[in-house]
Amino acid sequence: MDNHPLARRSFLQNSTTAALAASHALLATRAFAAGSDTLRLGLVGCGGRGGGAVLDALHADPAVQLVAMGDVFEDQLQNRLKGLQVEAGSRVNVPAKRQFVGFDAYRHVIDAVDVVILATSPHFRPLHLQYAVDRGIHVFVEKPVATDAPGVRKCLAACEQARQKNLSIVSGLCWRYHEPRRAAMQQVAQGAIGEVTAVETVYNAQGVWNPRRTREQCQSEMEYQLRNWYYYTWLSGDHIVEQAVHALDTMSWAMGDEAPEKCWGVGGRQVRTAPRYGNIYDHFSLVYEYPQGVRGYHQCRHWPNTPSRVRDLLLGSEGTCDVFGHKISGTTDWKYSGRDNNKYQAEHEALFAAIREATPVNDGHYMCRSTMLAIMGRMAAYTGNVITWQMATESEEDLSPPSYEWTEVPRRPVARPGTTPFV
Length: 423
Prior knowledge:
Layout: H1 8-34, E1 39-44, H2 48-60, E2 64-71, H3 74-88, E3 99-101, H4 105-111, E4 115-118, H5 125-134, E5 138-141, H6 149-164, E6 169-171, H7 179-189, E7 196-205, H8 221-227, H9 233-236, H10 239-242, H11 245-254, E8 262-268, E9 283-289, E10 295-302, E11 309-316, E12 319-322, E13 327-330, E14 334-335, H12 343-357, H13 364-383, E15 387-388, H14 389-393
Parallel strand pairs: 1-2, 1-4, 2-3, 4-5, 5-6, 7-10
Antiparallel strand pairs: 7-11, 8-9, 8-15, 9-10, 11-12, 12-13, 13-14
């Protein structure tokens, strides 16, 4: 995961221009897609995000049909299937023989389809992505792509293999498919704010769903942690990786997907302190140091009854870009005035257009880099150390359990800076 060889501005400009061109080209390919053969779609991970991704996919291409589903839990699969049948009717064709349950469900789904949506808890992403690529299947892969550095390395290798096999890999980092944001980033790439001197990303929210089951309601510790996966670092990566990766992806995008030199900062549990909240933090505040003295400042938190703030600012030598506001103020004032688009559906439009036109798209580089950026921040906060990019990317910390069975798994403690080691 070496630094990208291109200069930051030229890389940003070229990648943003290409993304815009691909988005506009979708309009020309829709007629082709409508008259093409059916693409068989599979879903691995039947939670809310997986169900939403299926509907986005079905809306994106009228010749796509959901034909297989898999999850570790039978009830999760059945509930999602019933909901999708109501929403999408006959375009959901998943008989009992293509409903798969258990830790190996992903294999059976992938073996039955042309395209798969990977939407389980993030820990399983590297395993599932590698199998899909091995089987020659196109993939929509939700963010983030891993919860530890070994997982990121596996995904990066799988994405390179996909490139060699002309398979498409589209990431769930949806802001890269949002036309107003792309236009704003294009302005920055063309020098509208001068040289980028600092990046500020904030993802302050009130939290997500509360733990769904107690240990008494589960048959094993494995079931308990999977039912409440968000609150366990090995499964979610912590909220900086699972949710705030969107903000850090914007930071990486603004820096031309160039790696930072180091990261340092703080984090902890101020509000979500009860044992039912597993071992993740509820806040992070970090500084990423980039070459040429550029710094990226990131803050995220999950505190109920506090104001939410999700905002990204790019500070330049000649102005400021409000990325969410899609506007620039400074030497050159600018505000986006074009059409808005559904960024979630646009991801799938890009995927299916690439498949039907035999022009593969591969988001592997940036989805792996942004995931690694979030993991790096977690490492800095958990240990209290300054973490270099080399340390982060070469880390051997593997958060996997001893086995994937309905049995006991480790109950890892909450990290304590100055005590928790870097591995």
